Amino acid sequence: MLASSKLASSKRIRIRVIAGLTILLALLLVTRLYFVQVVDGSDYRDEAAAQYTQSSNHVFNRGSISLTAKDGTERVAALQESGFTLAVNAQFISKSEALYNQLSSVVEGLERAAFIESLSDKDDPYVVIKRRLSPETAEAVQALNIEGVGAYPEKWRRYPHGSLAAHVLGYVGYGPEGDERVGIYGIEQFFNDVLSRTDGGLYVNFFAQVFAGIGEAISGDLSQREGDITLTIEPDVQSYLEKLLADTAAEWNTSQTIGVVIDPNTGAIKAMATNPTFNPGEYGVVEDPSTFTNPIVQSRFEMGSIIKALTIAAGLDAGVVTADTTYNDRGSVTLNGATIHNYDGGARGVVPVQEILNQSLNTGATFVSRQLGHERMREYFYGYGFNEKTGIRLPGEVENSVSNLEVDRDLEFATAAFGQGIALTPIATVRALSTLANGGKLIKPHVVASVDYEVGGSSDLTPEASRQVLKPETSAEISRMLAIVTDEALLGGRRARDRHSIALKTGTAQIAKPGGGYYDNLYNHTYFGYFPAYEPEFLVFLMARRPQGARYASQTLTEPFFKMADFLLNYYNVSPDR
To answer: How many Cβ atoms from other residues are within 10 Å of residue 209's Cβ?
Structure first.
């Protein structure tokens, strides 16, 4: 009886082991099927295509980049296109003219003279005749069965919206060694490792591939996991902003125009653009390489009087001034041997702090800076993030130049108070200005909403606000004061909107000379505003570099700002607050 019991127990163990092995094998087969059909599906399609043409070397592959439309749907802005390259081994070709006649019967657009010239070197084993052939044309070439002639699978990067969001996207070109295509500028560069696809995917050991994918999913190393990128950029808002910048550049003959539309509460950037721009799919035609750089993150400028809003907000928050606090404006003030003037040199007499914003008074910003004192003003300006990068996920972000805030002289703090003597990136400026609109929080501006990984699901990359810079009541008060600028001061209130309050400030900054001092006739114009003023959904920042024929930003940027504001209010059907 005991022997019979042991035999039965042994059978049960064997059955369980066999069942366990069967289940494990089934799981491995299902996993392998997933990789064959989903992960490596495109590779196998390329291999199948190569079977009826000829085998090819590495076929370029890359993930997609999409924009997020207002309704939440995605519009692909960068993707892979597939086709074939017609190539000839010149060593097998004795009669170029005859070959041309054969191929031109099935391939459109072949130029006779160029074709014959390309085959003049009979030692060249791989002469590219035409790229981006359709599968049908490739089949027709193969059907000719000509020795030394082949159609090879290829993929290329396509940007279906042309130049739309070019400075955000970047482009794909050949890297330093010239034999591998990589992302250059923009998202293509910053997320190159995510967008790139591993070479030789068909021949990776199955078990290594499975467990590598699991390891990536567990480790959370996002930079090493292949995926597709979704941006916060809204395509129609981006398109409208780009047209405004182009029109402004043409009207005022600027060297550059810049614009950002951001949700000041979350930091999600709805549009980011620079003019001149380029088409990422045709980057080779650009003559000036500086066109590719994104000045919103890669350049810094003295921002001028829009910084006065931040200075006064600091004064309000510290309790050293209120909107009704008065000072005696004499038109100029001398500090450390240098004299600061108002933009027109005029004196206003005894005026309240509100007039510093209404009339953009340099002497008033100086007054507030002195009420704050060096240490407290430095603390607020660093609180706005001026001593750090924003960390936006775009390549080449430069640091702000705020060393003047480390010089304990009244002059440096006075000039910083009205936006001269310190140089900021536009993205850092937008980040700081957003604190005025959103209840005093320092946000993290971002253009990437999420990454959809091939293995391991997706990741929401929306960052959280980093810290509280101003009291909520300070944010409300400075918003009220900036709304008065729109309703009463700007062009006599003629730009005020009946149904929506708008908080704004203009700025005009003199451009520094290389050896010191400032030009008398060269300016950068800046303009920002948010709306509705007390529960804002959007903040718009505009900049015109070296405009011709106008000294003040109110002349050059008022029209494009309000066009942008009206577009956003209507496009998003923003509820009126009046």
So the answer is: 18
